[in-house]
Amino acid sequence: MIPLFDLHADTLGEMYKKKEALSKNSLHISYESAKKFMPYVQVMAIWSDFRLSNDEAYESFFGALNYARSQGLNFATKQNEIKDRALILAVEDARLLNGDIARLDTLYQSGVRILTLNWRGESIIGGGWDTENGLTTFGKEAITRAFSLGIIPDVSHSSVKTSFEAVELASEQNKPIIASHSNAYGVFNHKRNLTDELFGEIKRLGGLVGVSLVPEHLGKDAYVLSVLDHIYHFLSLGGENTVSLGCDFDGVSSLPHGIKGICDLDVLYFELEKEFGREIARKIFYQNAHNFFQKSF
Ligand SMILES: [Zn+2]
Questions:
Q1: pLDDT value for 134
Q2: Tens digits of per-residue pLDDT, 95-120?
Q3: Which residues face 9 on adjacent strands?
Q4: Most C-beta atoms within 10 A of its C-beta, which of 7, 110, 238, 250?
Q5: What's the CATH number of domain 2-296, 3.30.360.10, 3.90.25.10, 3.90.1150.200, 3.20.20.140?
Q6: Rounded to the nearest whole angstrom, what is the distance from the C-alpha of residue 194 to the centroid of ligand 1?
Q7: 42 CA → ligand 1 middle, Å
Q8: Cα 63 from Cα 165, distance rounded (Å)
């Protein structure tokens, strides 16, 4: 069996919208289509849809979470729960806090362990990837509170300035941050991708970077091998223990040629094994993220 630990998927939100189950469905991820992978740990993010206000997004988060719970899904909050098949809960776009820091405590109690700070544009948290702006005062407060609660800040959709300010707060607290689904700017210069410098800082802090399957961020005409280019780049920056996967299944309208969903991810695994060997392939597919969450939980 191939072990898999994926740092980002939007499947819960899609399940909620379409009233589908995780066991079997029409989405990129189901347990049926993921049966080649064991252990299989999946970070499930609930997205603050850009069409919703901050308060509506907060309400919608609990709508999606309650739907997931009604489907019998549970979320790992302890080290020993990260095994076999496990889900970890994340929020994508922290603007749903809407200036109320107590909401973060409620989210933590509801099982949230990863907080993607931005999605795009300006928010109550700070500047997203398509802006030049950094964190707001509330954004800094949210990150500090996240660290003290045990929620991991995720700079995947953040601007360069926001990301480096998050790095600074993390350094002060001696805590890691992650970029759950981001590729290498050094390979393809999309603003959602990470510069070598930012990758180096996340690595220095002991964090993780999940390479995504988003065609727009991989480069022109993305194939499975395009994913390898980004991984190769991060490995060349000494990222052997930092690189992971953050596929973004069910968060994208298209995938690289050759991948229709999680069922085809073994193709990527075998390409990695061929190119970098079994040990590195396993680190990227599972072990790096596993080690990280054993320390963070
Ligand atoms: Zn995303």
A1: 98
A2: 999 999 999 999 999 999 999 999 99
A3: 249
A4: 7
A5: 3.20.20.140
A6: 14
A7: 15
A8: 32
Distance in Å, CA 233 to ligand 1 centroid: 21
220 confidence band (pLDDT: 50, 70, 90): confident
Residue 246 Cα to ligand 1 midpoint, Å, equals: 9
Domain boundaries, the chain: 2-296
Burial class (CB in 10 A: 0-12, 13-18, 19+), 72: exposed
Q: Structure tokens of 107?
A: 């989210």
- Separation of CA 192 and ligand 1 centre (Å): 9
pLDDT in tens, 193-202: 999 999 999 9
Burial (CB < 10 A; 0-12, 13-18, 19+), residue 132, is exposed
Task: Report how many helices (DSSP H) and strands (DSSP E) the chain contains, helices first.
Answer: 11, 8
The phi and psi torsions of 101 (rounded to 5 degrees) equal -65, -25
Tell me the CA–centroid distance for residue 94 and ligand 1, in Å. Answer: 12
Q: Which of 137, 116, 136, 135 is nearest to 57 (CA)?
A: 116
Query: How far is the centre of ligand 1, averaged over its atoms, from the C-alpha of 213 (Å)?
Result: 11
| Pairwise CA distance, residues 178 & 294, whole Å | 15
Is the pTM higher than 0.70?
yes
* pLDDT (average), residues 226-239: 98
